[in-house]
Amino acid sequence: MRISTRGEYGVRAMLDLALHSAEEPVPLSAIAARQDISEHYLEQLISALRKAGLVVSFRGAQGGYQLAKPPEEITISEIIRTLEGPIAPMHCVEGAHADCHHVELCATRMLWQKLQASMEEVLSKTTLAWLKDEAKKILATAAIQR
C-alpha cells in the first residue's frame, strides 16, 4: 500500500494539531503555512477528519481546529483509514476480490495478508502522542545543532 498525499498530509496536519492546539484552536491557515499544504486541500482533509470524530472545529475570530481527543487516544491507523480507506496492499485482501478467479488457490494472497497484518499492527499501535514525542526530539536535536 502506498500512502497518497491525502494520507501523508492528513497525518502531518494531525501532528501539527497535536503540537500546537493544546491551549487554543489552530487556524487552518497556520497549519497550511507550517506544513506547506494548500489551504483548500487541507480543508478537504480536515472535513473528513472532523466527520470521523478526530478533530473538532471552533467558529469565530479565535476559531480553528483542535484534536477531538488526546493524542494518546488517536492512532495513525484511524487517520489513514479515514483518509485512504482500507489498509490493504492488494485488492484481494481488502474484501473486494470478487473479480479474482484465483483467490482460493492463490499462495501470494497469503503474503499480502501477512503484509496487511504487519501494516495494520504498526499503524494501530502508533499513536499521535508517540509521533508528537518523536517530532519534539527532532526539533530539540535541530536546535542544539544550530
Q: How many helix segments?
A: 6
Helix/sheet category: mainly alpha
Low-confidence stretches: none
Number of domains: 1
User: Would you report the number of β strands?
Assistant: 2
> What is the top-level CATH class?
Mainly Alpha
- Strands of the widest sheet, in order across it, are 1-2
Note the main attributes of this structure.
single chain, 146 residues, mainly alpha, Arc Repressor Mutant, subunit A, two-stranded antiparallel ribbon, 2 strands, globular
Describe the protein in words.
With 146 residues, the chain is mainly alpha-helical. The protein has one domain (5-145): Arc Repressor Mutant, subunit A (Orthogonal Bundle). The protein has 6 helices and 2 strands, in the order αααββααα. The chain has helices spanning 5-20, 28-35, 39-51, 76-84, 107-125, 128-145, and strands spanning 55-58, 64-67. The chain has a two-stranded antiparallel sheet.
Write the layout of secondary structure elements.
Blueprint: H1 5-20, H2 28-35, H3 39-51, E1 55-58, E2 64-67, H4 76-84, H5 107-125, H6 128-145
Antiparallel strand pairs: 1-2
Quick recap:
With 146 residues, the protein is mainly alpha-helical. The chain is built from 6 helices and 2 strands, in the order αααββααα.
